[in-house]
Amino acid sequence: GAVVSQHPSRVICKSGTSVKIECRSLDFQATTMFWYRQFPKQSLMLMATSNEGSKATYEQGVEKDKFLINHASLTLSTLTVTSAHPEDSSFYICSARDNWHSNQPQHFGDGTRLSIL
Amino acid sequence: GENVEQHPSTLSVQEGDSAVIKCTYSDSASNYFPWYKQELGKGPQLIIDIRSNVGEKKDQRIAVTLNKTAKHFSLHITETQPEDSAVYFCAASGANQAGTALIFGKGTTLSVSS
Q1: pLDDT in tens, B9-40
Q2: Which residues contact B95 (CB under 8 A, 6 or more apart)?
Q3: What is the predicted pLDDT for the residue at A104?
Q4: CA distance linking residue A113 with residue B12, whole number of Å
């Protein structure tokens, strides 16, 4: 079945560091991928919609210069948290859907646990 | 925009009992309603979904019902097992199209005790 791979699964780094998270659709193509953030014991909050070959669409309150999104191919989207600070510590999850077949569900990666010291 | 409410936030049942989780949505244009199960430290896994042209769907011990008029949908798990313990999220979106993101409810922590 459709699989979304996310890497790395865990990052621990110092404040001020930039961190890149990759999201890949392994056996299907996705013109659109989604990035969510989840704080402990809370729901998934949509951060942005990643569009292949064009600019990402950010949700209200999400800084586009802080969370850089690149969707350079039909199987890869990256999220870069720039100059990360402790308040950016969270669980980041991406999702994607097979665009070539109708009525396909969204599949999620296993998330990236980001801890900023 | 869409808003999804989910109840209860926590649910404890005995093994073998049934569990029901309910969600309501606000946008009448939404027509796709998936349910996800999330285990600790992992991403959500789709367990069942329903589209607005269907009122009920069942997959073994799991069923989902949809009432478009009332704008609510429910997840039913029968014969619960300890391995069903997890956080369950309902979601809604307008048409299962490429550019439409899912809007999630706040989640239900289900605990099944043996």
Answers
A1: 999 999 999 999 999 999 998 999 999 999 99
A2: B29, B31, B32
A3: 82
A4: 28
Cα gap B85→A98, rounded to integer Å: 29
Which DSSP letter does residue B94 get?
S
CA-based angle A48:A70:B92, to the nearest 5? 25
- Of B42, B96, B107, nearest to A43 by CB-CB distance is B107
- Return residues 8-67 of A near B (CB < 8 Å): 30-32, 34, 42-46, 49, 51
Residue of A nearest to B4 (CA): A43
Q: Residue A64 in contact with residue A49, Cβ under 8 Å?
A: no
Which pLDDT band holds residue B99 (cuts at 50, 70, 90)?
A: low
CA dihedral sign, ordered B50, B55, B59, B60? positive
Confidence band of A47 (pLDDT split at 50, 70, 90): very high
Angle at A103 between CA A102 and CA A106, to 5 degrees: 115
The distance of A107 to chain B (nearest Cα, Å) reads 7
Structure tokens at B21: 């989780």
Task: Please determine, for residue B78, whether its predicted confidence score (pLDDT) is greater than 90.
Answer: yes
Q: Which of A117, A111, A96 is nearest to A37 (CA)?
A: A111
Closest CA to B19 of B61, B89, B82, B78: B78
